[in-house]
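Researcher: Good morning. I'm working through a list of sequences from a screen, and I'd like to move beyond sequence-only analysis. For each chain I'm collecting a predicted structure so we can compare shapes side by side. This is the next one on the list. No need for commentary yet; just the structure.
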Amino acid sequence: MPLNLQHTTSRPTRRIILAVLLVIALVLAVVYGREGASGPLHSIQRSITSVTGSASGLTAGVGAALQDAGEGAADMTANPNSLTALREQNEQLRMMLSDVDEYRQEAERLERLLDMKRVSGVQGPTARIIGRSTNPWDQSITIDIGSADGVREGMTVMGATGVIGQVSSASEHTSVVRLLTDPNSGAAVMIQSSREEGIVRGSLSGVLFLEGLDDDYIPQVGDVVITSGLGGSYQKGYIVGAVISVNKTLNNPTGTVAVNPNDQASLLEEVIVVFSAPDLASAEQQGGTQANTGESGATSATTEGAQGATGSTGDSSSAASASGEFATGAAPANQGTE
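Model: Good morning. Structure tokens for this chain:
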């Protein structure tokens, strides 16, 4: 015969348990309120909070992973046409960003050329470099303007920081520029600080060599080299470069002096073709003329002052003059008497 055992709790017992739980809760609340932050109940609370916080972080990480997985699954089930369109849009955005960066760099390069024009006072169009010679014996570049734009053979071509060469030939819409660094190039120059004159010549290595200096003159590393205006190749005052090594000594007057070009043509993308520039030589002559005029004025004023002083001597000067005239007139009489 099966036994039907049923565990039942009487109603009075449940009431007693509920009352005991309420009393315990009140006691814990009073103890929690009176104890400090280092009390046992607070410690238990912090432990429980850290455990639940870790569980929340784990849940969030799992949720993010599930979301990524869901998006991946959505991409796998997406329409192929939609995916293709999204890829095309992404590629267009990359190209737009690349174009913006290219425009920014071009604007910076052109701004440096404008700065050179403002500082040097040169006038002329800006040209793009569209070709470069790879032959070290023929170091030249090709630009995108020519005779139709006013370019003529022999015109100076400058970069953002100095002269780089001359137009060697010009067709209707393009021109060839022979660089200063070409082995067959040469330019009359001077040391800016000392005004010592010489000639720079190109080389296969792209370094310029300064020749023709006086035997007893030794340049210094760092000396700035500019065009002297002699020979008519380049107008005076264009920056060429700076001295980077000096092997010349008083005992070795034929030693080499190397000059680093101020502008590296290989790094340039745009240049200035100089149509006109301030005549520095005339300006210097004008300045010297003005100085001489000032000296002449001072001399004239001194002379006038001296004349005024002479006039103020009055009768004594007149008497001396009369005596002189008398003596001069008396001499012939005496000679005649003789």
